[in-house]
Amino acid sequence: MQVQQTVTNFRDTSEAIVYSLYAALMHFVSFLPALVGAILILIVGWFISGLLAKLIERGLQAVGLERAVAHSGIGRFVTNAGSKTTVSGIIARW
C-alpha cells in the first residue's frame, strides 16, 4: 500500500495534522509484513541453530572428543573453570 505524496492545499492546521497522521499510519501498516517476516526468520533460525548445536555436540562425543580431552588435561581445566558443560557442548555452542 503506497501513500501518495502529493502537495495539497489544506484549509487549516488540523486538516494537515490529520493528513500527516494518516500518512504515518499507512507507512507503519505497510511496514508490518516485513517486520513479521523478519521476526519469523529470526525465530526459525534460532530453532535451527539449537538443533545444529545438539547435532554437533553428539557428533563430537561420538568421535571420542571427550576421551581425548580427558587425556590431554583440558577437561580438568574446564571443570576447574566452573563450567557445567562438556567440552563438546562448549564447542557446539560456540
Task: Characterise this structure.
With 94 residues, the protein is an all-alpha fold. 77% of the residues lie in helices and 0% in strands. Helix 1 runs antiparallel to helix 4. It is rod-shaped, with a radius of gyration of 28 Å.
Low-pLDDT windows of residues? none
Q: Cα-atom Rg, whole angstroms? A: 28 Å
The percent of residues in helical segments reads over 70%
Count of DSSP strands? 0
From N to C, what is the helix and strand string?
HHHH
Question: Which class best fits the helix and strand makeup?
Answer: mainly alpha
Q: Beta fraction of the residues?
A: under 5%
Q: Distance N terminus to C terminus?
A: 42 Å
Shape: rod-shaped
Tally of discrete structural domains: 1
Number of helices: 4
Calculate the mean pLDDT score and round it: 86
Task: Give a quick account of the main beta sheet: strands, pairing sense, barrel closure.
Answer: none
